[in-house]
Design goal:
With 243 residues, the protein is mainly alpha-helical. The protein has two domains: 56 residues, no CATH class; 120 residues, Chitinase A, domain 3, CATH 3.10.50. The strands form two sheets. The chain has a two-stranded antiparallel ribbon with strand order 1-2. Strands 3-4 form a two-stranded antiparallel ribbon.
Length: 243
Amino acid sequence: RVTGTESPLILSVPDVKCVALRGPDDHPFLLLASSPVAAAVHPQELVDLGGEFAQQPRAACGEIATRALAARAGAAQCTVVEVSFLPPRGGGDSKRRAPGMAGPEPPAKKAKVVNARGGSTASMRLRHILLRYQDEPGASSASKGTVRTRQDAEAVLRKALRDLRADLKAQKKSPKDAMELVAVTSKKFMELCKAFSDCETAKKGGTLCGDLGWLTPDDCVKLGGSFKEVVDVLMPGQFSDIA
């Protein structure tokens, strides 16, 4: 009831849409999207895109936001947040394979450690594709002289992830372990690295193309941004999220 100068009572009925998920192995994430995104992208497409970029929340959110902006001609604030639930880590029944590997779960093994710079034993060897960008309009990347925004750079990296997955899927036989997984994806990775990367490591030959060598946790921190956070969750042979 409204009387005198009291403010009117405003009621709203939420529009709730549900999509059945296929369990934690297929959809281990939670998506939060602004109303312009929900209006522009069908709920099932949201789920499909999140599943396509599994454990890569930045890539998934970037793809969803890009599609929503395109559908709305850039006339709305399109915000997407993904909470990605990581698989159990460690030995025993919680040990998991990297995506793309075939066969039964491997038996529990003691983690192999490798001495690296600084004497640390918790190290990993990584290869990467680096794209430089400038958020200022009209700026160009330093090494190749091309105009590239952050959105442009992330779009290229999402395409690279798609190409790597498509190449892996096209293999006649699924890799049986992490070493074989790295071997079968190396050729495509080298092609993409040489084509797109602005890092000097892209000039290295063979399987060293894009190679950063053995990195300790401190090395990863020094690389800045979210680099350490992104690589800490990786399993051998797995492709990382966009850092």
